Each structure stands twice: as structure tokens, then as C-alpha cells.
Amino acid sequence: MRRRLILPALAVLVLALPAPAKADVGVYPATKIVPLGGTIQGWGDGSGMPMYLVPAAAGPKRHSCGSNGICEPTVEHAPGKPFVLLGHLRHTKDMYARQSFKFFVRSNLSPGLYRMYLYCRPCGNSLIESGNRLEGETIRLTARPESRRIRVGSAPTRVRFLVAEPAGVILLLRLTVPHGSRARVTGRIPGVAGVGISTDGRSRCRRHGAVDVCTQPEEWCPIPAAAWHFDLRKLAGPPGVLKLTFVIGPPPNG
Q: Which of 40, 76, 153, 234 has the lowest CB atom count within 10 Å?
């Protein structure tokens, strides 16, 4: 189904287009589940136009129009609260040139369902929701987990997992294991950065009751937002829970 934007008379006069006019602008996120502080990626068209997120319950709805069209909601001006500006598409010579985008999601938003809109002023101040469906689509923002807990038995174990992190510096890398366990963890952004922590004496480890807590100091080197590939290996020790704490963010002093 092809979306058709019906432009009000004022917009038609400004653009010198016959009414009704059709404009193929929109945004199409590839990322539908995003941790706070992470990134939303996708593609869109609409040279220089701003993109917004808004809690799903507060997002205005589309409605069907014509024989096979979708009409977007309109506003008097660029939206304010509760809409949150994600960023602007790049300026292109052709307004409808397809382009990719990548925007950071503010870490101070609340987890939950959101809707994404492109604000198109030339389209009669339309708020064009992402996707093609009449009912629109939602993007789920999740709380960014700072710890990954993995329950292991007494046998050697290997677990691989991904952790999405925002841009910034490594503030904390810590491994907590049942006392007497031998384990090591490596993490990397392929071709960009890597970290490692273990219980073999290379990291700073101390006993705290029934667990050993190891911390690996890291330099504050700038790191891009990315999905980290982690490889956890439990080599020996009692059954229990291994906890990896990995925190990336802005340096405390800015």
C-alpha cells in the first residue's frame, strides 16, 4: 500500500502543486527494541526534516482517506512536549532521496512503547508516522541493563551474548563469581575496541562473603555506540550465578 499525503490548500499554494498532491516522505526504523542510551537506525526520505519520539499513548493517529490512501495527522507547528526530538535527516538536493539515519535515544526517557514521527512542514505541518501500516508501529525503549546474570553449574561453561551500549567511556567493568570460581570474560566491538576481565590475578579481585568480586580498570577512551560481543567462560568452581557489570557513559567530569 502506498501512502498518500493530502496537502491542505495553503501547502499546495506554497509548493505550486495541484491538489490533491502526493509526497513520498517518511521514516522506516530497522531497530524496534532499543535500550535507553542506545541508537535507533533505519532509513527515510525528507531532506532536513526533524524526527521525534513520543509515548505511544500520546501519539496522534492516522486515518484512511480516498480509495487506498493514508492521511497523517497535522499540527499547527513543530511539536513540543511530550514529543522528544531525535534529530534531523540530512539535507539532500532531492527532498525524496533515500538516506540512512542513526540517532541516539536519550537515557533520561522512561522505558515503554513509543511512536516515531517525521515532521513535514511543507506537507501542511503533517506528523508522518514511521512505517506503512494504517495503525502505525511502536518502538520499545528498554531500561539499559548494567548487569548480566548467568547461572552456571559446576561443569565448565561457555556463554556468548550481546550487550548494547551508548557512546562514551568505560566507567565500570566488574565480574562477580561464587567464591573459588575461575572465570574469564572478553568483550569486543569487532575491529574497534575490546575489554577483558578474569579471576586469574590479572584483574583486582577481593572476597566479599560468598562471592569474589573482580574489577578491571579501564582508560577513558571514547567508544562509539555499538553492540558488544561478549564471551564468558566459567573454567572451574561451584555452581551459582556469575554477574558481569559493564557500564559505559560520559566521563563523570564531562
A: 76
